[in-house]
Design a protein that fits this description.
Number of strands: 6
Distance between the termini: 68 Å
CATH topology: TATA-Binding Protein
Structural class: alpha+beta
Strand content: 35-45%
Shape: globular
Radius of gyration: 20 Å
CATH architecture: 2-Layer Sandwich
Low-confidence stretches: 11-28
Largest sheet: 6 strands, antiparallel
CATH class: Alpha Beta
Length: about 140
């Protein structure tokens, strides 16, 4: 009898959990943030990107994380490059240098940090992106 009650309560709780919608993470511009990127709100990420956990090596979160984030996008490398040129200034990143090529490189500074963005084409509709963040002595505003 007790086992049946426990089973019934467990099933009710599971069904209630399935019925409720998970909250969506939203970026500064109102776009959805994939949960894997939520600890890195200071850098924009194209929608529908996914983190490569085997290659990502990052410590910290918020505006103080360091290391490298590696992810793939369902967009071509040229579109991803344009995305970062457009979105980085919206988060107060200052362009230091950009090179659009087979392996595009972008460097941005903000406060006492620098990020380097490497964009590699993975065909006509995919790109691999590596964002590396490090502390820096210079102050960018």
């Amino acid at each position: 009898m007790l086992k049946n009650k426990i089973l019934a309560i467990t099933l009710v709780l599971l069904l209630c959990g399935c019925a409720s919608e998970k909250p969506k993470l939203v970026g500064l511009d109102g776009s959805a943030i994939p949960p894997a990127f939520a600890n890195f709100p200071d850098v924009p990420f194209p929608e529908e990107s996914f983190v490569d956990l085997d290659e990502t090596k990052a410590l910290g979160s918020g505006d103080n994380w360091i290391g490298s984030l590696v992810f793939e996008t369902p967009y071509n490398a040229s579109s991803v490059f344009d995305f970062y040129v457009s979105e980085m200034p919206k988060l107060n990143w200052v362009e230091v240098a950009t090179v659009r090529a087979k392996f595009s490189q972008m460097t941005y500074g903000r406060n006492k940090r620098v990020v380097q963005i490497l964009i590699e084409s993975k065909g006509s509709d995919k790109a691999k992106v590596t964002i590396t963040a490090i502390p820096n002595q210079n102050t960018y505003k």
